[in-house]
Design brief:
Radius of gyration: 19 Å
Shape: globular
Order of helices and strands: EEEEEHHEEEHEEEEEHEHEEEH
Distance between the termini: 48 Å
Number of helices: 6
CATH class of the largest domain: Alpha Beta
Number of domains: 2
Length: about 280
């Protein structure tokens, strides 16, 4: 299995690094008129490279920037999408919803952490020393309260050494603007890779406010993980914080008059905690 740099497929990763995909070489060949590639010489951006699924259907195999939202990374992995579909289901119980939320968060963290910096270390094995890697910087997980808490365990299962800060922000139901009520961050958080988590990115007000708070604390390496987002929220983040990558499992259609994502998955906080 070879690792190919795909910087020509619609954008670069953080620090100018091309987006990586673990694929075999024949899957990177252009297919005339195939889904994911324009015909050779045709104008426009190329989308994700594809693999052949059942029935010969071309399926994406890599997370790349969204063509309309450069900072958005849409993760269309089959497991992520299957679990998101189950989470959307109104018949899914609160215990099942919590489990799905953590499973999706863990799977998405795999992509969100792809370009974490590492350092070389020597590892003693039963038969000698091996060259290995360790994360070069600490990781801090920052859930936006309250719903973001529902994603923390799934991420901590993968990065148990991560520290956890908290930002309490709620949305005023009349103005739809963020209101802060709590903040507790590590004193040296500026040294960290920061993962900001919230299941929903709706208007973008709370997320933008949270990123501003993190930047005031000195953070410069911030990534956001959310299950579902609306175009309004992505546009707001693009205007306020274009340097923050957003990793999501779903870009939905719109917001309703109350600021809820449609079709969305309902009120994530209520579904996590069984409240109404």
């Amino acid at each position: 299995m070879l690792v190919h740099k795909l910087g020509n497929l619609g954008g670069l990763g953080r620090d100018g690094i091309g987006v990586e995909a673990h694929v075999t070489p024949n899957l990177l060949r252009r297919r005339k008129g195939a889904a994911g590639f324009p015909p050779k010489g045709a104008p426009g951006k190329a989308a994700s490279p594809c693999r052949r699924g059942l029935g010969g259907i071309l399926l994406p195999i890599v997370t790349v920037p969204h063509p309309d939202h450069p900072q958005l990374r849409l993760i269309d992995h089959p497991l992520v999408q299957q679990k998101l579909s189950a989470a959307r289901d109104a018949n899914t119980t609160a215990p099942a919803f919590r489990r799905l939320l953590n499973e999706i968060a863990g799977l998405m963290t795999f992509e969100a952490s792809r370009h974490f910096q590492t350092r070389v270390v020597d590892v003693p094995t039963p038969f000698g020393n091996a060259h290995g890697v360790a994360l070069a910087h600490p990781v801090t997980l920052v859930p936006i309260l309250r719903a973001g808490v529902g994603m923390t365990d799934g991420i901590l299962n993968l990065i148990p050494e991560a520290r956890v800060g908290h930002l309490g922000v709620y949305r005023d139901e009349t103005t739809l603007e963020p209101v802060s009520y709590y903040a507790k961050l590590p004193t040296d958080i500026a040294r960290s890779h920061v993962l900001l988590v919230d299941p929903m990115l709706a208007t973008g007000g709370s997320a933008s406010f949270a990123v501003s708070e993190l930047k005031r604390a000195g953070c410069s390496d911030i990534r956001m993980i959310c299950l579902v987002c609306a175009p309004d929220g992505v546009q707001r983040m693009g205007a306020d914080h274009p340097d923050v990558q957003i990793f999501t499992a779903g870009l939905d259609d719109e917001l309703d008059a109350q600021g809820y994502i449609r079709p969305g998955l309902g009120d994530a906080g209520d579904r996590i905690f069984g409240t109404h």
